[in-house]
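Page 42, continued from yesterday. The earlier attempt failed because a stray header line got pasted into the input along with the sequence. Redoing it now with the clean sequence only.
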Amino acid sequence: MRKLLFVLISVVLLTGCGDKTIDASSPENLKKSISDMVSELEGDQLQSFNISMGRIMINSAIEAAGDDKKKQAIIKNKINGKTASEIIKIGENEKLPGEAD
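This time it went through. C-alpha coordinates are written below.
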Protein backbone atom coordinates (compact mmCIF):
# COMPACT_ATOMS: atom_id res chain seq x y z
CA MET A 1 0.00 0.00 0.00
CA ARG A 2 2.85 2.38 0.81
CA LYS A 3 4.46 1.71 -2.56
CA LEU A 4 1.22 2.54 -4.35
CA LEU A 5 0.84 5.74 -2.35
CA PHE A 6 4.44 6.70 -3.10
CA VAL A 7 3.94 6.06 -6.82
CA LEU A 8 0.74 8.12 -6.89
CA ILE A 9 2.35 11.04 -5.06
CA SER A 10 5.36 10.89 -7.39
CA VAL A 11 3.13 10.96 -10.47
CA VAL A 12 1.20 13.95 -9.15
CA LEU A 13 4.39 15.85 -8.33
CA LEU A 14 6.01 15.08 -11.67
CA THR A 15 2.89 16.09 -13.55
CA GLY A 16 3.14 19.55 -12.01
CA CYS A 17 6.71 19.93 -13.25
CA GLY A 18 7.68 21.00 -16.74
CA ASP A 19 6.88 23.79 -19.11
CA LYS A 20 3.56 25.57 -18.99
CA THR A 21 1.18 24.87 -21.82
CA ILE A 22 -1.65 26.83 -23.41
CA ASP A 23 -5.17 25.99 -22.27
CA ALA A 24 -7.49 27.14 -25.05
CA SER A 25 -10.59 25.40 -23.68
CA SER A 26 -12.24 28.80 -23.16
CA PRO A 27 -11.35 32.43 -23.96
CA GLU A 28 -10.72 33.07 -20.26
CA ASN A 29 -8.40 30.07 -19.90
CA LEU A 30 -6.58 31.07 -23.08
CA LYS A 31 -5.92 34.60 -21.81
CA LYS A 32 -4.81 33.33 -18.40
CA SER A 33 -2.52 30.62 -19.75
CA ILE A 34 -0.88 33.03 -22.21
CA SER A 35 -0.43 35.57 -19.41
CA ASP A 36 1.09 32.94 -17.11
CA MET A 37 3.40 31.77 -19.87
CA VAL A 38 4.54 35.29 -20.78
CA SER A 39 5.30 36.07 -17.14
CA GLU A 40 7.94 33.31 -17.15
CA LEU A 41 9.63 34.31 -20.41
CA GLU A 42 12.50 36.76 -20.73
CA GLY A 43 14.58 38.47 -23.37
CA ASP A 44 14.84 36.85 -26.78
CA GLN A 45 12.45 34.05 -25.88
CA LEU A 46 9.74 36.56 -24.88
CA GLN A 47 10.28 38.53 -28.07
CA SER A 48 10.15 35.38 -30.22
CA PHE A 49 7.00 34.22 -28.43
CA ASN A 50 5.25 37.56 -28.99
CA ILE A 51 6.23 37.65 -32.67
CA SER A 52 5.06 34.06 -33.13
CA MET A 53 1.72 34.72 -31.44
CA GLY A 54 1.24 37.77 -33.65
CA ARG A 55 1.90 35.75 -36.79
CA ILE A 56 -0.45 33.00 -35.64
CA MET A 57 -3.21 35.51 -34.85
CA ILE A 58 -2.84 37.41 -38.14
CA ASN A 59 -2.81 34.29 -40.30
CA SER A 60 -5.73 32.80 -38.37
CA ALA A 61 -7.76 35.97 -38.93
CA ILE A 62 -6.95 35.93 -42.65
CA GLU A 63 -7.82 32.25 -42.94
CA ALA A 64 -11.11 32.76 -41.10
CA ALA A 65 -12.11 35.58 -43.47
CA GLY A 66 -13.94 37.59 -40.83
CA ASP A 67 -15.63 34.66 -39.07
CA ASP A 68 -14.68 35.16 -35.40
CA LYS A 69 -15.75 31.67 -34.31
CA LYS A 70 -13.71 30.10 -37.09
CA LYS A 71 -10.72 32.28 -36.15
CA GLN A 72 -10.91 31.14 -32.53
CA ALA A 73 -11.12 27.50 -33.64
CA ILE A 74 -8.07 27.90 -35.90
CA ILE A 75 -6.06 29.52 -33.11
CA LYS A 76 -7.14 26.82 -30.67
CA ASN A 77 -6.09 24.07 -33.07
CA LYS A 78 -2.68 25.67 -33.56
CA ILE A 79 -1.72 26.43 -29.95
CA ASN A 80 -3.82 24.42 -27.49
CA GLY A 81 -1.58 22.26 -25.31
CA LYS A 82 1.61 23.78 -26.73
CA THR A 83 4.58 25.11 -24.76
CA ALA A 84 6.26 28.45 -25.44
CA SER A 85 9.02 26.70 -27.41
CA GLU A 86 6.47 24.87 -29.55
CA ILE A 87 4.56 28.09 -30.22
CA ILE A 88 7.79 29.82 -31.26
CA LYS A 89 8.47 27.01 -33.75
CA ILE A 90 4.92 27.27 -35.12
CA GLY A 91 5.33 31.04 -35.51
CA GLU A 92 8.62 30.61 -37.35
CA ASN A 93 6.72 28.61 -39.97
CA GLU A 94 3.89 31.14 -40.24
CA LYS A 95 4.56 33.35 -43.26
CA LEU A 96 2.63 36.58 -43.49
CA PRO A 97 1.08 37.62 -46.80
CA GLY A 98 3.70 39.22 -49.02
CA GLU A 99 6.56 37.94 -46.91
CA ALA A 100 9.42 36.24 -48.75
CA ASP A 101 10.04 32.57 -48.08
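Notes: The radius of gyration is 17 Å.
Reminder to self: strip header lines before submitting.
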